User: Fold this.
Amino acid sequence: MRQVFRERECNHRDEGADGEFYNGAFYVQALQQLPINRAMEVAGKVGSFFWADAQNIRVWLCPRCAGELNLGDSPRSISQVARRQA
Ligand SMILES: [Zn+2]
Assistant:
């Protein structure tokens, strides 16, 4: 199987917000920890994908959406992981 990363992004990227890429698996994990109505709200701002593909997806989130997913302060964004491994 080819490892092809696909990208999704929240709809604030068009507004020029700063953001970071997150691993799709972390994004899905974070969504699952939210109450369903809030999860639907956040998911509605981000391009959808099959959760089974999450490992191959990078999700760009602005700080606000990352915060709603409680991803904002965690060392889970791809660039932070890269820095730790460098
Ligand atoms: Zn956003």
